[in-house]
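Intended use. Records like the one below are meant for learning the mapping from a protein sequence to its folded structure. Do not use them to infer anything beyond what is encoded.
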Amino acid sequence: DMLPGFCHCKTGYAGESCNRCALGYKGYPECLPCNCSVQGSVNVDPCVGPCVCKEHVEGENCDRCKPGFFNLQQNNPKGCEECFCSGKTNVCTQSHLTYRSIEDMNGWYLTGLPGLIRVTPKQKRFDGHQQFSISNLAARKVLPQTYYWTAPSSYLGNKVAAAGGHLKFTVSYDFTEEEDAVQLMVQSDVIIEGGDLRISTPKGGIQLQPSEEHTEVIVLKPESFSVHGTDDPVSRREFMTVLANVKRILIRATYTYGMNAIYRLRSVTIEAADHTSTGRKVASAVELCDCPPGYDGTSCESCWPQHRRVNGTIFGGVCAPCTCFGHAEFCDDITGECLDCKHNTGGSYCERCLSGFYGDPTKGTAEDCQLCACPLSIPSNNFSPTCHFDRSRGLTCDECPAGYVGSRCERCAEGYFGQPLIPGGSCQPCQCNDNLDFSIPGSCDSLSGACLICKPGTTGQYCERCADGYFGDALHARNCQ
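Structure written out for the chain above:
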């Protein structure tokens, strides 16, 4: 922070009154950059050559990263970071994207490290922020001595663009009853799981006293973490593999062995770069990789649409085309099964038409599966739930209901009348009092329903009476003789 009366100097100038050149510049009053890059050289005085470059830096003036490295920074002892790029290329540059701050104070819960039991905290607004609280007595009925706030889905998944950003949160606690001696608990404050790895911040980072509120800021870089349960450093490859598919973020809830504590959490934010962000903080620690065909994402950590990450492997993993015949955007990384088949297709690989459709989905067009027309495709005149395509006979309907005949249910059967080929038309039983002679085709007019050939001994427009020379009951007993 500047002191009162100090000037805000232009680049290259320094001093209380900007009356000298800054480190790495010379020639006051016209301060010009020295030969050796302040960011990339190890020279004590960048104006005194020759330039000696940091390990990952090259160039006569030590002003550029070696191939396979990016993001030249003065505070990086090696100068540049290694390209991760999921092992698919070593060509990358630093991004000029800016960070967006993600905050979602919905869906948090408490859990132990195994994550088997969940406890829902209390929630209220505090200072314009959502604040969670948990009574230690209530939590300890089901949770172990050390338990954690667990982040909801907004903070999880693919977070490679959070590299170099901040994870920030505010914690506090107090006691419901006076405690004699507060014994502080020494644990990791943050644990991140992903890519079959669990990494954590050093133990005892936050030494929190009762009624004290503490805001913690963790820079998301490998140096901030170790492999959980060990002192082993986290390599850049391991760190980026975790960020590529974050499964859990755990923030320590417990800071004391006192049983009467009430623990609180609020304002959890994570910074992640994206193309739509209008923030001012440039995400130079986010790499932009020159990915081969089939690979996507800033670090080649994703696949093109209609591709899958075989077995879900990030580093060195393979993006292979889905076998969905163009009917699904995504397929399961492990099994290869297609997810959400479209275009009226179904099956593990969208390889068959749904019931009520026919065609060959393996042709790979949106029109592969057509609606069955039995005989018309409109619902009022589609009388068979299924159909298939026969090379010799064409479209064949499988389940024409009673009263319909023809390969497409397009005609009325004997004893029925109607016009199934006209929208709204259907086949109805002929109203002939069950006195038709079906042994003779055409016994009932298939269009009008008129009764044409009654059974022997019956007659009338509806075969409703006994013929001349016969007696009996044609309607009920049907015993004309």
